[in-house]
Amino acid sequence: MVTNLSDTNSILCNWIAQIRDVTIQQDRMRFRRNMERIGEIAAYELSKYLPYADRNVQTPLGEAVCSELAQTPVLATILRAGLPLHQGLVNYFDSADNAFIAGYRKHHRDGSFEIAQYYITSPDIEGRPLIIADPMLATGASLVLALESLVGSAKPSQIHIVVAIACTVGIDHITRKFPDAYIWAGTVDEELTGKGYIVPGLGDAGDLSFGNKMQS
Description:
The protein is of the alpha/beta class. The protein has helices at about 10-20, 30-45, 85-90, 140-150, 170-175, 205-210, and strands at about 1-5, 50-60, 60-70, 75-80, 95-105, 115-120, 130-135, 135, 160-165, 180-190, 190, 200.
């Protein structure tokens, strides 16, 4: 299932406009906070698809039957760009366990690139909902590699992918590899350049959040 959260007008559309705007992008704190807000909206929407169970809760005046999450989800993200979006998920799933993947695009002189992944730490995800955040879903290569690493020896009950901006090319790649995954996108763009950048997109989410990287 693919959900474009911008299909219905809401305050989320303001935040999408702001993270794209080259003048507003100069304010890193605002950029990070808007990413965090998008994560919070996605967390609320996807929470409707998680399993729940009833529990009797004692109040000062009696007993109430309340619904609670049946399983604690695992929240994952790809460092460093995914951290603000991930924080939005943590704000809502505050008891969740967390997984982190260190990966980046390793560019070659001929213009091609490969996904380099050097580090992964994760709790046990067997039988639990897995929610992974990455601000940009371009080619989908980094997300596929991260998911394959996470689910290589365990089977989550559900997979939810949260992105601020997705490209149809990346969505198609993800759905081929993980047909049962839910994709939650702040918005969806159609164009992808030959170098794998989304157009109009927003630029480099990691640099906009935390500063430019040293070029190797």
